[in-house]
Structure formats: C-alpha cells, structure tokens
C-alpha cells in the first residue's frame, strides 16, 4: 500500500506544479485553492508512504514522479521543448525511479 500512496502523492505533485502555473503567482483564486489542496494531499500521502518505504527512496521517487510528470505535461500541453537531450534526461530520471523501486522491498 505504501507504494500506491507514493505514486498518488507523485501524481498530486504534478497537479500542484501545473496548478501553480495556472494560479499565476497565486493571483487567481480557484487555481490557487486547487494548488494548495494538491500540495496538502501530496504531502499527506507522502507521509503515509514513509511508514513503509525508506525516506531516501520515497523522497527521490516522489520528486522523480513529479519531475518527469510535470516535464511531460509541459511538453504535451504547453509546447515545451522536445530536444533529444531533454527527453533523454527525463528518461534517465524515469530509469532512476524504476531502479529505486526494484531495489527497495
């Protein structure tokens, strides 16, 4: 169950990163409310995941999911660069996430 909590926490990190962009510096009410709610849910689920996953692994995977997911959303919805080096770097982060999952009980 800890890995499920961690995965959903990572997805919520993607949500709050995108929400932060949409809030325009917390000047728009509803995107700001969404962002703050997503941050709270993400951190709460991360704290639940830490009951069963070592902190170094959990934090790295949480941040990695957020990083890869946010970068992909940026590419797909905000016309961000698809430069080969950028995509390869995102892939390396993804490989690190998978590697940490494989070596953590």
UniProtKB/TrEMBL annotation:
Protein topology in the membrane: Multi-pass membrane protein
GO molecular function: transmembrane transporter activity
SUPFAM superfamilies on file: Multidrug resistance efflux transporter EmrE (SSF103481)
Compartment(s) of residence: Cell membrane
GO process annotations (BP): xenobiotic detoxification by transmembrane export across the plasma membrane
InterPro entries membership: EmrE-like, Small_drug/metabolite_transptr, Small_multidrug_res
Keywords: Cell membrane, Membrane, Transmembrane, Transmembrane helix, Transport
Any one Gene Ontology cellular component term annotated for this protein: plasma membrane
Residues spanning the membrane: 33-50, 57-78, 84-103
Chief location category: membrane
Record has Cell membrane as a keyword: yes
Gene3D superfamilies from the UniProt entry: 1.10.3730.20
Keyword Cell wall biogenesis/degradation among UniProt keywords: no
UniProt similarity note: Belongs to the drug/metabolite transporter (DMT) superfamily. Small multidrug resistance (SMR) (TC 2.A.7.1) family. Gdx/SugE subfamily.
Stated name of the protein: Guanidinium exporter
Source species: Xanthobacter autotrophicus (strain ATCC BAA-1158 / Py2)
């Amino acid at each position: 169950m800890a890995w499920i909590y961690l995965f959903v926490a990572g997805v919520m990190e993607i949500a709050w990163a995108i929400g932060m962009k949409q809030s325009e510096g917390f000047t728009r009410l509803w995107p700001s409310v969404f962002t703050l709610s997503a941050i709270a849910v993400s951190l709460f689920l991360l704290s639940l995941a830490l009951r069963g996953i070592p902190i170094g692994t959990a934090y790295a995977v949480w941040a990695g999911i957020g990083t890869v997911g946010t970068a992909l959303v940026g590419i797909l919805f905000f016309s961000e660069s698809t430069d080969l080096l950028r995509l390869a770097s995102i892939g390396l982060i993804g490989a690190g996430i998978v590697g940490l999952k494989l070596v953590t009980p």
